[in-house]
Amino acid sequence: MPGENLSRDEAQQRAALLSVDGYEVFLDLRSAIGESDQEPRTFRSVTTLRFRSAEPGASSFADLIAPSVTAVSLNGKDLDPAEVFDGTRITLEDLAAENELVVDAQCAYSRTGEGMHRFVDPEDGEVYLYTQYEPADSRRVFANFEQPDLKAPFRFEVQAPEGWTAWSNGTGELTDGVWKFAETKPISTYITAVVAGPYHYVTDSYSRTFEDGTTLEIPLGAMCRKGLARHFDADDVFLITKQGLDFFHDNFDYPYPFGKYDQAFVPEYNLGAMENPGLVTFREEFIFRGKVTQASYERRANVILHEMAHMWFGDLVTMRWWDDLWLKESFADFMGSFSMVEATRFTNGWITFANNRKAWAYRADQLPSTHPVTADIRDLEDAKLNFDGITYAKGASVLKQLVAYVGRDAFLEGARRYFKRHAYGNTRLGDLLSVLEETSGRDMASWSRAWLQTAGVNSLTPQVILNAEGRITELSVLQEAAESHPEIRPHRVAVGLYRRTPDGELTRYARAELDVEGPRTVVSELAGEEAPELVLVNDDDLTYCKIRFDETSLATLRAHLGDLTDPLARALCWSALWSLTRDGLMPARDFIGLVLRFAGRESDIGVLQMLHTWADSALTFYAAPEWREEGGRALAEGALRELRIAEPGSQNQLTWARFFAAVASSAADLQLLQGLLDGTAKIDGLDVDQELRWSFLGPLASHGVADERALAAELARDDTASGKRHQVRCLAARPSEAVKAQAWASVVESDSLSNALVGATIAGFAQSSQRELIAPYAPRYFAAIERVWAERSIQIGMDVVRGLFPILQDDQGTLDATDLWLASHESAAPALRRLVLEARDDLARSLRAQKCDAAAAS
Q1: Cβ neighbour number for residue 7 with a 10 Å cutoff
Q2: Residue 475 and residue 521: Cα distance in Å, rounded?
Q3: Rounded to the nearest 10 degrees, what angle do helices 690-702 and 708-717 cross at?
Q4: pLDDT at 403 over 60
Q5: CA-to-CA distance for 240 and 263, rounded, in angstroms?
Q6: What pLDDT does 95 receive?
Q7: Which of 307, 329, 437, 691 is catalytic?
Q8: Dihedral of CA 165/170/172/176: which sign?
Q9: What is the DSSP letter of 227?
Q10: Which of 568, 510, 572 shows the shortest CA–CA distance to 547?
Q11: Which end of the chain is more exposed for a tag (fewer CB within 10 A), N or C?
């Protein structure tokens, strides 16, 4: 990635000098179809960029990443492309007060999901295009000033192959063979978008009449590949869309500002989704090819609403630089759950937030790369890595705490004032804090210092003192911080007291809500209450913290976790127990035992799926090596038991079937999976559809039961893009030296695979049952990663560095090798070092947890 970086200092200097009046971009995409020996395959991109300079005579640069530039003119003067274009930047000298830059370039189609991605559907040979830019890949499609604070109106024209449809941010029409799109409002380069191809397109509309009598009409559209059309439940997508628009109009007092609202579900997408105004893009996996649980529909609804929140937080008002990425991502993450709970059928969304999103945040906040929510982003490589659990999930958690701190009404009124003051502009942290201070009367500066400008997660532990009569004399909350991040924060928390009822249910009988400040806070409101069997700090999940338990509470959970009736309280306890396991304070075998004992009674399907993920991780990474085989048998036996007793056809049955496949390893287990595939075995109510077939084939391939011929036959049965990804993953999972060598070479030594197939190959390569087989690749990893980082796109570089780190070689030797690489590569790209440091921390955590688990056996 040499030469493609942009520093914050450079961006600030350019923003101080330039302001942009508008873009006109013409893209000729007819080269997307047909045979071509050209490498790379390119398309014509012509940009007319009008801008002003505060200092006539000054110099600056435009951004463009392209194989070649045909012509450049500045203010009517032709420039020599060889002199002014270096492959990533176009030098602009002797600027006038008002300028017009015209760049005619040959830009490359992408196979990595960055820029203009080109996908050929193996099912029917059709070609599909879409763009993905964040944080800085629009320069792969047209010349521009690639930074968020140089906003401008955009007018796109697209010449597409005959029979295709093209879409962009504005409404479009086909005129003389060219798709011409209405000019946008002022927006940043990274949220412009183009989608083109023979997409299946469904339409609807949204109408809203406001109190002043005005009516807003929003045309709605949703699209996917033709091969997925039979699976596309567009009606549900439109339902969530309309419910979200109603919610945001009710609460933001600022009508949706970008005209139409198209949503494109596209192939080989690197992200979950992207908030391009008027043309939101999603990964097509949100179109479900088989039976899925309600958790999948909830996840899709959350993402739809997350992206919709961005229309205000991010698109209408945009952060000035990536330091304040949280100004859009944290708010969208919070508002996605907030709106989903209040406006859709997914009323238990805060349970998913507590159990899933926060788990991501807690992990990220304990890595050596943790950072404040408002981060120090020096350049674009920093920015790319900062789309992480801190910026999204911790930021959203902090906002949930903020709503409890200032009150819902003050929070929403602050948002309304923020939009109206800064519409189509760029902001920093202080701009938002000032309106929240106005509406709440709270000191936002001190709150910000504690929550947004420091890193790390606090632990809250209850301390209970009882009198002779068995009542509470004093209940305190003890707050601790890690030595590396010693900040003790103010928390708005609820403390719940739980006891078992005569019929055995574990229920709450007392609750106090208070501000916790300092190392120790007395909860005076609960003095005199009967002795609790469980004290749950952060009941109702108001704050962001690690929950700890006193000895009595932990003993209660070990014996009666399944009796806890409130699903949110139960989810919080599961999350806290997982945190204890990850921190090496609870043996992995104990956590697995709790899952085997109580997960079958879990009513929330999203929590159940997370418990399966955690149990698998506990076995793979945190259990003592000598216990793994026994633990694996126990998990498989427990999963099969729950699968057989689950209600036929239920989502619980489907969830246990997938988990059973994930942990199956014995000959009997694999024989059952094979029987379910070929029809010789049946479980009442279990529909083994195509997606579930691939789930069963994964372990069969990794244990050497399903060979290349079997996988080829399955691909013939499912000759689709999804089927190809599954086949590639299963092929790489086979237990063979030759297979692993081929998989490694296809990812590390070659760039012929698309981003989706790179990901599939990496997923298949590292199997927990194949530690010895892949051990030789640990030294090869450290020898290769700096070259991979330099030669490949940042997305592929991230996938390789993260995905192939030898985490399964969990011994001191691998830790030492990692430390040696870090010590001998101090000058490596900071973003690369960050990825290796994070992987090292995961490995060290695994070793500590394994020691804890081994000690439990002695």
Answers
A1: 14
A2: 9
A3: 170
A4: yes
A5: 12
A6: 98
A7: 307
A8: negative
A9: G
A10: 572
A11: C
CB 702 within 8 A of CB 735: yes
Residue 760: pLDDT band (50, 70, 90) is very high
Mean pLDDT to the nearest integer, 247-254: 96
State how far the Cα of 525 lies from the Cα of 542, in Å rounded to an integer: 18
- The tokens describing 406, both together, are 């200032």
Q: Which two tokens stand for residue 526?
A: 């609960």
Instruction: Report the alpha-carbon distance of residue 383 to residue 395 in Å, rounded.
Output: 16
Non-local (6+) Cβ contacts of 79 within 8 A are 72, 73
Q: What is the pLDDT of residues 174-214, one digit of tens each?
A: 999 999 999 999 999 999 999 999 999 999 999 999 988 99
- Which SS3 state, helix, strand or coil, does residue 811 take? coil
**Contacts of the segment 477-481: beta carbons below 8 A, 24+ positions apart:** 477/516, 477/520, 477/521, 477/523, 477/537, 478/519, 478/520, 479/516, 479/518, 479/519, 479/520, 479/521, 480/519, 481/456
Note the residue count of the chain.
858
Q: CA dihedral in degrees (628, 629, 634, 639; nearest 10)?
A: 90
Bridge partners (DSSP) of residue 291 are: none
Distance CA 389, CA 272 (A): 14
State the Cα–Cα distance between residues 237 and 222, nearest whole angstrom: 8
Beta bridge partners of 108: 42
Predicted confidence (pLDDT) per residue in 284-310, tens digit: 999 999 999 999 999 999 999 999 999
* Sequence-ordered strand ranges (E) for 724-847: none
Residue 307 catalytic?
yes
pTM of the predicted model over 0.85: yes
State the helix-helix crossing angle for 651-663 and 628-645, rounded to 10 degrees.
Answer: 160
Categorize the per-residue pLDDT at 375 as very low, low, confident or very high, splitting at 50, 70 and 90. Answer: confident
Q: Does pLDDT of 2 surpass 70?
A: no
Beta carbons of 317 and 8 less than 8 angstroms apart:
no
Percent of the chain with pLDDT over 90: 92
* Single-letter amino acid code for the residue at 276: N
Sorted by sequence, the CB contacts under 8 Å of residue 297 that are 6+ apart come out as: 236, 346
Sign of the dihedral defined by the CA atoms of residues 371, 373, 378, 381, in that order = positive
Look-up of token digits 């830790």? 815
The partner residues of 392 in beta bridges, in order of sequence, read none
Contact 495, 537 (CB under 8 A): yes
State the DSSP string of 3-43: T---BHHHHHHHHHHEEEEEEEEEEE-GGGSS----SS-EE
Q: Which amino acid is at 522?
A: V
Enter the DSSP assignment of 347.
T
